[in-house]
Amino acid sequence: MMTFKATCLFFASITEFLNVSTCLKSSLKLEVLADWGGIPIFPYKTFVELAVGREMALLASKLGIDAILALGDNFYLNGVKDVTDERFKGTFETAFNYESLDVPWLVVAGNHDYYGNVSAQIAYTKMSNRWFFPDFYYVKNFRIPYSNMTVDVVMIDTVLLCGHTDPKEPYKQPLLDSVPKKTREKQWEWLEDTLKLSKANYLLVCGHYPVYSISTHGPTECLVKQLQPLLMKYDVSAYFSGHDHNLQHIQVQEGVQKTDYFVSGAANFIDPSKKNRNEIPPHSLLFHWGDPFSLGAFTYVDLNTSNMTVTFMLSNGKVLYASHKMPRYF
Predict the structure, then answer these.
(1) Are 58 and 51 within 8 A, CB to CB?
(2) Distance of alpha carbon 248 from alpha carbon 265, whole angstroms
(3) Cα separation, 144 vs 270, whole angstroms
(4) Signal peptide span per the entry (predicted)?
């Protein structure tokens, strides 16, 4: 039979354990990377990709990541041929072969994936316990631990919205007419309905093409025209993208409302270009990084009941930049 003192110590230890557990699991934790897709020849991966994967795994082992958002150009330069393509193993499975990264990878396609077979990438969902690419565009719902607060992650196919890129002129705007009008309109209608219906405390939209970028590709005209108004109208917490191979935080304000745009495309190649710095709204650039002599970077997103913190991290573990955003309330 336990003495009174032993009983008190027992319950104190249980309380302490629960408090620690709650502290450790009181937020939803995501990692974000884009343009991570290795190379088309053996060994199908780059030193930058491997370095980013190692640091992602280290961070995940410390914090317990819930999901990873993989935002296109998953397989350079020409996507995959079919569901048995060796690129799945060489560029994905072995490059990110860590227990801590054995979580759902929410995937969308980039322009380079469309030079190959995107349907094969979707089909690979049934062959992998972590690759999650159920359709060309989709929404995934999460709950913040120990709360009633929710997070909606809306994954969109910006290639089907804005068009394919010309392999001979990859840095020009996507070719809008390369995608049938009905295909584009169907996704735009789905997206607006999804945003309108969402009552999540954090509403994230993710795609490959950026809305705004100061780098090589610059703003995506189609998205500036059609997506930006939707993000503002439905109070989207943030838009995450890649396409340009660096890190950027751009914040656009209309009246009292602000929309945050994060580019996280530095997981395989790094581009320092700022050639389009005058093509975004004045004073909207809050951060840019693109060190070609580094071994890449990725994004860590922590969402709790108080705020969302977006952190840009180098593959050596150094924190480059962090920003915060309050949740939405209804």
Answers:
(1) no
(2) 9
(3) 33
(4) 1-23
Q: Dihedral sign, CA of 45, 48, 49, 54?
A: positive
CA contacts within 13 A on the Cβ side of 75: 28
CA 21 – CA 5 distance, rounded (Å): 24
Q: Give the largest Cα separation in the chain, rounded.
A: 80
**Binding site as annotated, residues for Fe cation:** 35, 73, 76, 111, 208, 243, 245
Strands (E), 209-267: 238-241, 247-254, 257-264
Query: Two tokens at 226?
Result: 């059609």
* Cβ proximity of 153 and 69 under 8 Å: yes
pLDDT reported for residue 186: 99
Distance of alpha carbon 145 from alpha carbon 306, whole angstroms: 13
Residues 6+ away with beta carbon under 8 Å from 68:
30, 31, 32, 33, 56, 101, 103, 104, 105, 106
**pLDDT of 1-56, one tens digit each?**
445 444 444 334 433 433 444 345 799 999 999 999 999 999 999 999 999 999 99
Report which of 265, 268, 188 is spatially closest to residue 229, judged by C-alpha positions. 188
DSSP letter (8 states) at residue 226: H
pLDDT score at 25: 74
Distances (CA, A) of 142 to 39, 68, 73, 201, 290: 33, 13, 25, 10, 31
Written as one letter, the residue type at 134 is P
pLDDT of amino acid 230: 99
Q: How many CB atoms lie within 10 A of CB 46?
A: 21
Collapse the DSSP code of 18 into the 3-class scheme (helix H, G, I; strand E, B; otherwise coil) and give the result.
helix
Annotated binding site: 35, 73, 76, 111, 208, 243, 245
pLDDT at 75: 99
Q: Note the pLDDT of residue 314.
A: 99
Number of helical H runs and strand E runs in the chain? 7, 14
Residue type, 95: A
Q: What residues of the chain score a pLDDT lower than 50?
A: 1-2, 4-23
